[in-house]
Amino acid sequence: MSITRRLADTVDAALELPIAPSFTRIGHDLRSRLDGWDDAQPRGLEGRVILVTGATSGIGLAAAELLAGGGATVVLTGRDRGRVDDTAHQLAERTGNDALDPVVADMGEREAVAELADHVVDSHGRVDVVIHNAGALSAERSENSDGTEATIAAQVLGPFQLTATLLPTLRATAGSTGRPSRVLTMASGGMYAAPLSVSGLQMDQEAYDGTQQYALAKRAQVTLNEMWAERVDAAVVVFHSLHPGWADTPGVRSSLPTFARVVGPLLRSAEQGADTLTWLTADDGEPLQTSGEFWLDRRRRPIHRLPRTRRSDTPARREALWNWCVRTCGVAPAL
Ligand SMILES: NC(=O)c1ccc[n+]([C@@H]2O[C@H](COP(=O)([O-])OP(=O)(O)OC[C@H]3O[C@@H](n4cnc5c(N)ncnc54)[C@H](OP(=O)(O)O)[C@@H]3O)[C@@H](O)[C@H]2O)c1
């Protein structure tokens, strides 16, 4: 190992210990210099179909712009017709790429997720990358039309259903390109505080705490990412989850206004928050060589940092989570 790489490893490990410098733009800037990368500016993506959920704002919008700028066909989703259409229009103007397909889909509603999957198959016949980015931290508890808590519905069940439904198309796309397809999940460093829980996954009204509910959802996401990778051949589809650090987005400003004000100048830009996501989406090197990993700033990270969350992560609980998703989504993945 070269001295430069050893120095980069040492500084990177030191940065990971205290969360603040690691998650802010300091972590991004130092690591990009130490590891010698510039923010992703993908090129040569013509012909690839990339689905980005939650592309109307923040990190998803930044990633969609970079991917469209690289020539990809981008299916971009959000919950509001006006917002997704405006986003597609603006991205076409800014990138000169009009291969943008705006779709309305609430990721927390089973029917909408099923329609989104059908739309991708019917309109494009292929999907190279599915990016589960849509997400929010909600101060108030709400439920979807099935009675499932909304954070879990949109960030655990919706992505599970979409992956399960699109799996045959992801496989077929890999068969025609000779390159593994990808499923990427935008989690959060907030999950480090949360145990893996199935019986306590949905907080009831009395216990509800938006930050904890969000962390439980993100813990479930990174766990399911590993479970998909164990079940699907990595030569055909790779799965990765990641966290963006702390980025200045409309979502952070509205859900965590005090945090956004205090940390303000240290927050990453949305583009910096989207860098590892864009790299995992578009780079045909390292991101295709492994599966089931969790990333920050283009490096693999552990999914546990606390003994109590590690203890919660048992094989039986993992199996229970998977089975609950299959039952609740009503979709059995063709593994
Ligand atoms: N920013 C950060 O520092 C940070 C840190 C850790 C993790 N993350 C994660 O990064 C992702 C993006 O966050 P962001 O900060 O960019 O937030 P944002 O600016 O609020 O953008 C969120 C996007 O998700 C969409 N969305 C939200 N709920 C949805 C639902 N139920 N169905 C479909 N679309 C939905 C929104 O679209 P519409 O409102 O138009 O429907 C919007 O496009 C999230 O998964 C978040 O948890 C962000």
User: What is the CATH-assigned architecture?
Assistant: 3-Layer(aba) Sandwich
Series of secondary-structure elements, N-terminal to C-terminal: HHHEHEHEHEHEHEHHHHEEHH
Proportion of β residues?
5-15%
Q: How many discrete domains?
A: 1
Spatial order of strands in the largest sheet: 3-2-1-4-5-6-7-8
- What does the average pLDDT come to? 95
SS summary, helix count: 14
Helical fraction: 40-55%
Structure class = alpha/beta
CATH class: Alpha Beta
Radius of gyration equals 19 Å
> Any idea what the shape is?
globular
Give the N-to-C terminal Cα separation: 39 Å
Poorly predicted spans: none
The main β sheet shows up as:
8 strands, mixed
Query: What's the total number of strands?
Result: 8
Oligomer: single chain
The CATH homologous superfamily: NAD(P)-binding Rossmann-like Domain
The bound ligands are:
NADP nicotinamide-adenine-dinucleotide phosphate
CATH fold-type name:
Rossmann fold
Describe it:
This protein is α/β, with parallel strands linked by helices and 335 residues long. It has one domain (39-329): Rossmann fold. It is built from 14 helices and eight strands. It has helices at residues 3-16, 19-23, 25-35, 58-69, 81-95, 110-124, 150-177, 210-231, 250-255, 257-263, 270-273, 275-282, 307-312, 315-329, and strands at 49-52, 73-78, 100-104, 129-132, 181-186, 237-242, 293-296, 299-300. Strands 3-2-1-4-5-6-7-8 form an eight-stranded mixed sheet, sandwiched between helices. Strand 7 (293-296) and strand 8 (299-300) form a beta hairpin. Helix 4 (58-69) runs parallel beside helix 5 (81-95), helix 7 (150-177) packs parallel to helix 8 and helix 7 crosses helix 14 (315-329). The longest helix has 28 residues, at 150-177. The radius of gyration is 19 Å and the shape is globular. The chain starts with a helix and ends in a 6-residue tail after the last helix. The mean pLDDT is 95. The structure holds NADP nicotinamide-adenine-dinucleotide phosphate. NADP nicotinamide-adenine-dinucleotide phosphate (NAP) is lined by residues 53-60, 78-80, 83, 106-108, 133-136, 154, 186, 188, 243-244, 246-247, 249-252, 273.
